[in-house]
Amino acid sequence: MATEKNTLRQRLSFTNDPWFSAVVPLIVLFAAMSIIKPDTFLTSSNIMNVLRQSSTYAIMAVGMSFAIITGGIDLSQGSVLAVVAIVVGIVIRDTESIFLAVAAGIAVGAAVGVLNGAVVAFLGVPAFIMTLGTMRAMRGVALLITNGTPIDIKMRAFRVVGVESLFGIPIPVYLFVAVALAAQFILSQTATGRYIFALGSNEEAAKISGVRISANRIKAYLISGVCVAIAAILYISRLGSAQPIAGESYELESVAAAVIGGTSIVGGEGSAIGSIIGAVVVALIRNGMVLLQISTYWQSIVIGMVIVVSVSIDILRKRIEASRVS
Amino acid sequence: MESGDVILRFENISKIFPGVRALSDITFDIRRGEVHVLLGENGAGKSTLIKILTGVYKADGGRIILDGREILPEDILQSRKMGIGTVFQENSLVPHLTVAENVFLSREIKNRFGTIDWRRTYIECQRWIGEMGIDIDPRAMVRDLSVAEQQIVEIVKILSQEPSIIILDEPTSALSDHEIDNLFSIVNKLKNEKGITFIYISHRMEEIKFIGDRASVLRDGHYIGLLPDLKTVKLDDIINMIVGRALDEKFPKRDVEIGGVILEIDDLTVAKTIYNVSFNVRAGEVLGLAGLVGSGRTSAAKAIIGMLPKKSGTVRIAGEIADIRSPSDAIKMGIAYLPEDRKREGLLLTKPVRENVTLPTLRKFKRFGALRKSLEAIAVNGFKEMLSIKTPSIERLAKFLSGGNQQKVVFSKWLCAQTRVYIFDEPTRGIDVGSKSEIYKIINNLARDGAAIIVISSELPEILGVCDRVVVMCEGRVAGEIGRREATQESIMKYAIGGVR
To answer: Which of A72, A139, A319, B57 has its CA at 20 to 30 Å from residue B48's CA atom?
Structure first.
């Protein structure tokens, strides 16, 4: 009897994983919208639209979860998205080479990530402050390069990824699933992933265990930067135009998605899969409010509250767990 | 209320922590206007008793009687209102406020508009400073003061609340000789002129004879006895009372051929903590690093593994100079360090046992860049069996294990690393007797396999029971080295308190 119980519990053990908490709002939101607005919500074009919209956030949120797992945060994501999109747009315009444009975009994202990580790791500047600084600075860079005017992309071939579908599913969806799987592989199957969790869980113990704290912290921000670059390439491919104010406040949606997906804001816990689910939840909330014709002003208020509520739930969960132990 | 009557009485005070009886049946009196010294080893129960008196802990039994009335302080603030002031070891001042602001923090002197009356604040503060016969500017920033001056400000702060009893917890540990003299004249002045009673905790034997009137000795949570006149008692007798217990833990025997020198530390200095520390450890040898808390044992270990920056000194492994700048270097060169605080430095509490054990050695479990969890599981289950770690599964989070089993997990981390040198910092702290002897067996097995081992411990019986040789540290320096045959609790204690120079 006991063994049977054990195996059943083991088989259901994923329900204890933090990311599972995101599945509940996902199902609730989906069910609620299906009942309230069956004719507009439950259409394949709307569902595909939600997925397409969530793709940018989802990829950013995957990167954000790396930063948050180390106990930090990456607030520069939104501005870096704009800079990368603009760089990609300019390279396409001037060289017509998709390869060069993508390479340049990823290089920019990676470079800002390394800068964020290095200052946080070596100088001990709090991640919140450092990335807040790069957030402002990168917005300035975006405005400076473009002189305030948007960059348009006329090249058809570049827009295929953002616009087209494959087997009835938008190509961005394949892309964000691929990013999520790659990130999840790093987090749960490689030493780097283990080290990133370790330093977020207990930096002192990780250091004494021989984990190279600075190098791994920089890697986390590097991954966040690269994710933002991929999200930016997708973004400009989808919209065909890069505004210098693109991606404004996207970092907050990204934080919301990561936290809803079970990434602990104090570090040491989280998953790429959870962040993806979290991003879809945020997209569903937005989509639902649009369908219910709630004003965009209210949408901001709701998203803000969602962030606070999901962090509160995470903290309460920890407190209950702690009281159970002692 | 003349001096000499009983001001404070502890009556049958008991305190039980999970698995440990911290205090049993403590009964004694403190007289009005005396300096009463509390003596005992680390863990004897002095701090627990003080914490009960100041309301940090609740006693599980017994009564505290202050001025003939039973008191039950709920917290420090309440005990302060009852007239018990405490000067803590770590200072509790706010560095970027002035002396006067600190002294009256949360009791600000206000004028009739409800804002702070700065003029009276400074005058009042100056008055209290004057009472102590010292000279500190009430307008000075606390961060600009020396450690000794800060300590005096702490006393001013306590004094201004007009307590009848002041508790001084190791007040001289950070002071120079001259500053200590100063502090003592303040204590004497307050005792003689204001009739204030002091409870004084210190490990320094010379100074307690100088400043103390009577002393109570605690050992393993029991009241051992009263020293009615500290001025006439012999130092050796005090030490005997403090340490004089029989070896009550079982130390398994070890018979190992001791080989050549593996680890050699030469002239190691860390800024402001340890000075010119040199010692060596041989293959198959267990070296004890003894000394009081704060004597620099842990700092020496952390400097060796690169957690603390070395100011000077060399580390040699098997004769070759090892340039160790971080724990990751240390592990590569074959030195493992088991930290004294397993929750803060030893474990990832929110991660499974498996991930904790393999953290220092993840490289071993990689194939084509990916971790092989099946290999990890085989290795970790092996340690679970070998050390009999009690956990239903190696996937259980470390925080759900008991202290002894957590410590075995930390041991497994380093056994898995198979290094040549092991530094164990308080390896049995907070662990039940059964797990203790298992841990001693692990240490013996490592020695048998030819590892060089350092055991840092504050428990003298443990040092005597497991070590082949003992290096005693005092105030950041090596005070002496004692071979196994000559080592006794008394001889170690003498070096540790600076009795032999």
So the answer is: A319
